[in-house]
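User: Sequence recovery, please. Input:
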């Protein structure tokens, strides 16, 4: 909630339902485009967190500070992600993935360190989020009616 819309980052709407537990109780469908955007933003965030958690769980080299040069660190991360994708494509059941606790319902992870230090505000990205949210809501509403 502390970040603004800026190049490469779309923030959720402030003051609007966001966290998964706020959507979990009964048939609480989004009432407007901001709620739908926040619901989808929250769901995407949870999926991304689970993916990174799985990669970090499997590849110990990603769990501690690295003293390699930045170029080497980038290659290590890419290699771990490629291997992870290879495993996912070739294993019917991934035992590491099956053992991960579902993060749905968890809000924040106090042990995680934020790596984004600053995002410059951008009216262009705010307008883009607004148009995207309205378009998603219109499409969602149309599908629900038909």
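Assistant: Recovered sequence (146 residues):
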């Amino acid at each position: 909630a502390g970040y603004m819309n800026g190049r490469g980052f779309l923030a959720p709407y402030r003051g609007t339902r966001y966290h998964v537990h706020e959507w979990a109780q009964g048939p609480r469908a989004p009432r407007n485009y901001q709620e739908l955007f926040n619901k989808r933003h929250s769901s995407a965030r949870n999926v991304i967190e689970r993916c990174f958690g799985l990669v970090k769980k499997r590849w110990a080299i990603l769990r501690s500070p690295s003293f390699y040069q930045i170029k080497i660190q980038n290659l290590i991360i890419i290699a771990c992600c490629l291997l992870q994708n290879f495993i996912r494509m070739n294993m019917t059941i991934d035992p590491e993935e099956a053992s991960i606790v579902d993060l749905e319902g968890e809000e924040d992870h106090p042990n995680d360190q934020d790596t984004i230090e600053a995002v410059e505000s951008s009216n262009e990205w705010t307008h883009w989020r607004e148009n995207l949210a309205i378009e998603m809501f219109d499409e969602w509403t149309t599908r629900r009616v038909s």
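The CA atoms of residues 55 and 84 lie 7 Å apart.
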